[in-house]
Amino acid sequence: MARSLLYPDSPATAVRLAESVWTPDSPRLPSAQFPAWLAERAAATEFAVAPIPFERARGWGFDERTGDLRHASGRFFAVEGLAVASAQGDWEQPIIVQPEIGILGIVVKEFDGVLHCLMQAKVEPGNVNGVQLSPTVQATHSNYTRVHQGREIPYLELFTRRANARVLVDVLQSEQGSWFLHKRNRNMVVEVTEDIPTLDDFCWLTLGQLQAMLRVDNLVNMDARTVLSCLPFARPGAPADADPFVTALTRSLDPALGARHRDADVRSWFTEAKTRSELTVRRRPLDGVAGWSRDGERIGRADGRHFQIIAVDVTAGSREVSRWSQPLLAPAERGVVAFLARRFDGVLHFLVHARVQHGYLDRVEMAPTVQCLPGSHPDPAVRPRFLDYLLGIDPARIRYDVLQSEEGGRFHHAVNRYVVAEVDADFPTEVPPDYLWVALHQLIELLRHSHYLNVEARSLVTCLHSLW
């Protein structure tokens, strides 16, 4: 198998990860038995989520002075107001403020010479289907320091103390910039060689098994997708009988085949986008947010667009705390997240958007070509660029089309349609200045660093890997 061209500092690890990718099944948990295992774990978990009035949200309340929605401990997160002034216009909105840095971590271990990932069947109050496949550890700082006085988080010490564990990935990455203010999590992968117990809600899967699961609606959660996107691995050439798109995608992984723009030019384009961005963000009291109102059960807009804030009561027997209340952000509709792709000299490139977002720590991150809630943009004059092209594209040009859930711990039934579509020959090669054609190997290289690719782009990169 080929050595890694993407990660020359870790060729052996990259090849071992690639071997796991090319292992589509495992005796640890055969793929044919996985649905039954997941259903068994769901049935074994007492789980219920019920909308409640804000006044019944135990431990939560509105600040008498600002109207901000906070937990009595002062920890976890808060819902505050935000005023935004940008070149695209001015607006105000509620936003989730969670300054803590949590851990999203996957443990890997070799079985019969193949690396496996320790994944968790985890319930989250906002999941559209209850149980989804999550990383080994998925915890906020408040949770893993046990502010809730609940049970300890399994396997946490492998990431906090890294006892008997070797770090493969450790990078800070952002989360949704339209709903979170400066939210970041530590994305980690650690390898163990010693035996560790496999608890009831956990299972060992190869990367090949996980990639097949990425083609199933709402199965692999957002936190798992972002961690998986940061993994380095080598990949050999496509089989001789591979689909032409897969061949072009494989070529896109090889830096030796070149790209439309040099790596230095991609970074310079991104720096220029950050330099010219015009954005002013001010936190303000939630009670004073223009265009939004609060009743006993929700905070929302009169037109119902964008999202609303609700409260829920949760029972989850498998969690560190078995019952709690919390607010959730509920999007108004299903979103669309898409890369448009085009071949240049046989190498597949993706149209990346330098997206200005009020919640990003550095104002701009690389985003998919299209990322929006379509119904929140009814005016044709201000529709997101390329949205109508995507919605009208020939279905035969769509290479990936799967519903994926966003963070179920903070968002209620937040589901996006994740799409990769190859444009036709008439699509322009020259694009607006805040867009750029970028090869897959360049995106993967940027994932070694913080604050380049946003969480939606990272999810799509992970989904791209599933096309093999």
Automatic annotation (TrEMBL):
Gene3D superfamilies for this protein: EvaA sugar 2,3-dehydratase subunit (3.90.79.40)
Q: Which terms in the Gene Ontology molecular function aspect does this entry carry?
A: lyase activity
Its taxonomic path starts at: Bacteria, Bacillati, Actinomycetota, Actinomycetes, Pseudonocardiales
**Protein known as:** NDP-hexose 2,3-dehydratase
Q: Which domain of life is it from?
A: Bacteria
Fetch the Pfam families from UniProt: Hexose_dehydrat
User: Per the database record, which ranges form the dTDP-4-dehydro-6-deoxy-alpha-D-glucopyranose 2,3-dehydratase domain?
Assistant: 32-231, 264-464
